[in-house]
Design goal:
mainly alpha; 5 helices; elongated; receptor
């Protein structure tokens, strides 16, 4: 007896698998970015908080050491604008639109009037109806 051969995966299943794989990669990259940001936060601020508690309990922490740990925490805040563009393409694109050093030559600089009209929701609008909104 011969058993008819049934394709192991239909075409729709391959498409779903590809989309799932794409979303998995994005989720993994987002998790990696978040892990790096949180890891740097803990590395920078945990010594400060531990020392702060020790200072409250025993008063044995030199002022200079406490200042160094405070500035280590402040340096963490300067690292965030560096980390976000390295790991997040959307953030890089958004910043590239507004920073002159990152703008591509073909992109026009948005004028203050355009930005103001966009932010104030004034100016010409497309007609909307309840049917279009729903």
């Amino acid at each position: 007896l011969q058993v008819p051969h049934v394709p192991s995966q239909p075409l729709a299943s391959n498409e779903n698998r590809r989309l799932t794989n794409k979303h998995s990669k994005k989720a993994l990259k987002a998790s990696l970015t978040l892990g790096i940001l949180l890891g740097m936060f803990f590395v920078a601020w945990l010594p400060f908080f531990v020392t702060n508690v020790a200072q409250a309990v025993c008063g044995c922490v030199p002022a200079g050491f406490f200042d160094v740990l405070t500035w280590l925490g402040y340096c963490n805040s300067t690292m965030n604008p560096i980390i976000y563009p390295l790991f997040m393409r959307d953030f890089k694109r958004a910043m590239g639109k507004f920073l002159p050093c990152c703008r591509r030559p073909a992109e026009p600089r948005p004028s203050a009037i355009t930005l103001s009209m966009r932010n104030s929701h004034s100016g010409p609008r497309a007609p909307t109806s309840l049917k279009n909104v729903l």
